[in-house]
Write a structure and sequence with these properties.
31% of the residues lie in helices and 28% in strands. Helix 3 crosses helix 5. The chain is an alpha/beta fold and 386 residues long. The two termini are 20 Å apart. The protein has two domains: 5-226, Spore Coat Polysaccharide Biosynthesis Protein SpsA, Chain A; 229-384, 2-C-methyl-D-erythritol 2,4-cyclodiphosphate synthase (60s Ribosomal Protein L30, Chain: A, 2-Layer Sandwich). The chain has helices at 34-45, 60-66, 81-92, 112-121, 165-174, 184-189, 209-226, 267-279, 285-288, 302-314, 337-348, 366-369, and strands spanning 5-11, 28-29, 32-33, 50-55, 72-76, 99-104, 127-133, 138-141, 146-149, 155-157, 161-164, 195-198, 229-242, 245-248, 251-254, 257-259, 317-327, 355-360, 373-384. The strands form five sheets. Strands 1, 4, 5, 6, 7, 10, 11 and 12 form an eight-stranded mixed beta sheet that branches. A five-stranded mixed beta sheet has the order 16-13-19-17-18. It has a two-stranded antiparallel sheet with strand order 2-3.
């Protein structure tokens, strides 16, 4: 994802409903404060060039001491949320970001996928706002009235809220007097379009002690899941046949032979799928796509990769790294290494940094040494997704 993005993390509240001794963002979830947990997730996403943390004046130095990162700037907030946001936007104006995500420090349980969705949906939009439906029964209640509120059109609005930077900056400049509890309303009052996307129920705001206790349980469960590391291995081999090109790792490269197989004989993709299935304890590629079934004859192996990706998502695992060895005398892997890595990364929607592809030979020994085919061996490590 191309980066020209800014994140503003709002930490200017003092939490009167929570604890008078210190704001809730400075309470710890396991070994880190709530605000550290939130900011760290933004850093680890690698989606943002700059992060601005907006702090209350009474806790400014304390907040600055939490973050030792040149790309994180801590600034003073205003007397309310709206003025704090404008301070953050003003501090970033000289950086000329394209997009900005504005987020509450006390919402630490958003997923990386939500950040990605907000940024992706901003392409061609002015604002993108995550929201969730209201499922509980809602009543309007006063001393004189107790009545239904129809929930069909009700939404719970969340952060991070995404905006084109210049649009939200100008909107704040024009709305300095009116007070709003979120930034989407400022744009809406100026007759701008608001795009809602599906938020996440886990992305709740820690407001009360009960919320905090729930948060501690979530972190405890998350740490337990992190301890579950899986390892899978995959191996595949295909012999050569007459031809003028090879299909490896989804790329077609010129060669004086082709690979023979029931599908497209992509030895690289097949080995990766086999390793993922092994790590998930779901058998092997032959169980899922038997070579005796004509349905898979000449099928492109990108289909198998997408299938493995969906299984990872449904089983709630993510790839930590792939280590891949292509075994052959020819072609020379070094000529195509970077292109192979990019192709695998695109197929599985993971970072290129998680993939290593190398080549080796059998020193002219055996059928591989006689240049009768190509083999591929893969190791993958998986861990529970957040």
């Amino acid at each position: 994802m191309q980066k020209n993005n800014l994140a503003i993390i709002l930490s200017g509240g003092i939490g009167k409903r929570f604890d008078k001794s210190k704001p809730k963002q400075f309470y710890k979830l396991n070994k880190k404060t709530i605000i550290e947990t939130t900011v760290e997730k933004f850093i680890n996403s690698n989606f943002f060039n700059y992060i601005i943390v907006v702090s209350h004046k009474n806790f400014f130095e304390f907040t600055k001491n939490l973050f030792n990162n040149k790309n994180i700037k801590v600034i003073l907030g205003g007397e309310n949320r709206q003025k704090s946001v404008f301070n953050g936007l003003s501090a970033a104006k000289s950086l000329d970001p394209k997009y900005v995500l504005i987020h509450d420090a006390v919402r630490p349980f958003f997923s990386m996928n939500l950040l990605k969705k907000v940024l992706k949906n901003l392409e061609g939009e002015i604002s993108v706002i995550p929201s969730i439906n209201v499922y509980d029964s809602v009543r309007y209640f006063t001393n004189k009235k107790y009545s239904n509120v129809f929930r069909e059109n009700l939404k719970l609005i969340q952060t991070p809220q995404g905006f084109c930077f210049n649009s939200i900056y100008e909107a704040h400049k024009k709305n300095k007097e009116s007070i709003h509890t979120d930034d989407s309303m400022i744009l809406y009052e100026l007759k701008n379009k608001i795009k809602l996307i599906k938020g996440e129920k886990m992305n709740f705001k820690i407001t009360t002690k009960e919320d905090y206790n729930i948060g501690k349980l979530i972190v405890k469960d998350s740490i337990s899941n992190m301890n579950e590391i899986r390892v899978g291995t995959g191996f595949d081999v295909h012999k050569f046949k007459k031809g003028k090109k090879l299909k490896i790792f989804g790329l077609t490269i010129p060669f004086d032979k082709s690979l023979d197989g029931h599908s497209d004989a992509d030895v690289g993709f097949h080995s990766i799928v086999d390793a993922i299935l092994g790590g998930l304890c779901l058998g092997d590629i032959g169980n899922h796509f038997p070579p005796t079934d004509n349905k898979w004859k000449n099928r492109q192996s990108i289909y198998f990769m997408k299938y493995a990706k969906k299984l990872l998502q449904s089983e709630k695992f993510k790839i930590n790294n792939l280590d891949i060895t292509l075994i052959c005398e020819k072609p020379k892997v070094s000529e195509y290494q970077k292109r192979f890595i990019k192709s695998v990364a695109k197929a599985l929607d993971i970072d290129c940094k998680k993939i290593n592809i190398k080549g080796t030979t059998t020193e002219t020994l055996g059928f591989l040494g006689r240049e009768e085919g190509i083999a591929c061996q893969v190791s993958v490590t998986l861990s529970k997704n957040d």
